[in-house]
Amino acid sequence: MTTTPISTSDTELPAGPGATASNKTKSPKKSKSSASGHRSPWFGRSLLAPVLAFFIALNVIPTVWMIGLGFYKYTLNLGDPRYVGTDNFTDIFTDQELWGAFSRTLIFMVSAVGIEVSLGAAIGFLFWGSSKMPGRRLALTLMFAPMVMAPIASGQFWKLIYEPSFGVINDLLGKVGVDPISFLTDPDWAFRAVLFVDVWMWTPFMILMTLAALGSVPSAELEAAEIDRLNSFERIRYVIWPNGKFILMLGVLLRTIDAFKTTDLVQTMTEGGPGDSTEFVGFALFRQAFNSLNLGYSSAVALVLLIIAIAFTSIYLYVLNLSRSK
Amino acid sequence: MTKPMTAPTRRSGKDTAKTAGYYSLLWVVAILFFLPILWIVMAAFKSNTAILNTDYLFTPTLDNIKSVFDRPNVTSQFISSLYLSIGSVILAVAVSFPAAYAFSRWKFAYTDFLMFLLLSTRMVPAAAAIVPMLLMFNLFGLRNPFGFFLLYTSFSIPFSVWILKGFIDGVSERFDETAMVNGASRLHVMFKVVLPQVKPGLVAAFIFNLIFVWNEYLFNFSIGSEGVRNVPYGIANGLVDSGGNVDWGFLAAMSSLYLIVPMLMIFLFQRYLLVGMTFGTVRGDV
After folding, report:
1. Which of B114, B124, B205, B226 could form a disulfide with B163 if both were Cys (CB 3.0 to 4.6 A apart)?
2. Are B159 and A251 in contact, with CB atoms under 8 Å apart?
3. pLDDT tens profile B141-176
4. CB contact under 8 A, A12 and B173
């Protein structure tokens, strides 16, 4: 993306008089075969068709459907949907539980992403330059394992690891004389315990992104930095950051979106409890839809969340783009 | 920390002790992350009593692994997992490549917007997407392997397009022009000139999406039916035995077996995994 754009003459302009002109001047030879298809914008658009078909059928239609449902009162098994206008949306504003879950999710998201990014960047840096390390491939494979284990399975197993009477953590704590801690049923601990598992699971992803970002730094620039005797801070500031930031920030974005949606960890480990200490919006929504079967209201909530997420991402990408085109 | 800051290949043999210490530190970090997984894999070879007694030393048994396959449906769950994820990701990469090529070469005015729209599908909370999807799948009778094949393909498309566009942007348009001046068709350029140069991108897109689809649970659980049940569903569903107790041995054995494929992928295609995330801008040592 940031590779030097080999600027070609604007032969690929989609349409307009210029396009036809350059078509004539530049391609005298290929007149015999499929000449019209070469530069026609319609050929380009047709290449997008399969992806767009999938996108419309499985993303646009369900989303429009969801928006529509938001205006209905529709509880599965309780008769037909009934149009209620914007009632669902006004209900959202006064839904204390939901906004509690929302702010809890934000705290979770900021802590999880903050820890994962700093830890991931630190470890990524640590691994940078270890290409001659014996068994490096195996070490990285083992380190990436947490992110490919099925979350549903790791969530369950962490429950066992955290278990007060026969979990391994409390067993080890007991050996150094610490009283058992009910990590998942103690309101003081549950949030941190879930956060810890999320960090364990997704820090490897940020390590991966950091390594990729570092890999996109041209070795020539690093050598120049060495000749100029830049210190570590200057190297990060002037050589690494300008090259690697796009990838790194994309990693942060993906993690942020996913942390905001955290559902399966909570579902397997705490089911939102104890009390509501780990009730996050993703899971609250899941409960509304599938336990209460409250499809209209949950669709309205989903729409509000989607708008928040899109607004956040647009601002984020906008800022990222600004700094990228520097 | 200053050591790894130097160019990756600059390491001389002089300070071997320091190097050994550095490598050991890296190994320790890697193993710390792996420990909980190791604990799960160990449990796969323990009896349920040993698991609940938190035994560190134990006589390994293959009972858990054997009994996994004694359960009904487990084999079919493994098969569904395999063909649903591999098939759908291959289809996703196949349709994403032409689109990424078009985005890269035609520079439509709406490219950025469309690319963003594609990514935005990731922002819909899964639980929210499930509701309309359930109604739609019910309506069109799609709660079958075919429907899930399409669903998982649509999951994998956005990221594939993003990765591939990055890689194709890195292939100079001069290649296209030279070939076309010499009479090649656009399709020939796409598949014979550009495609071979972005193979790492194709592999990267494949691996990444495979890992995501491999562990997909919410949709499978909520709107799946017989025939599309994958292993994550099987794990959740078979967890509690008839007496209401969690069968930890089963959980450990099944999830450890299920981990083999993605771990092998990471080991074998690690280069591509690292390169893939650079969206084609690799220049240094990954």
Report:
1. B205
2. no
3. 999 999 999 999 999 999 899 889 888 988 888 898
4. yes
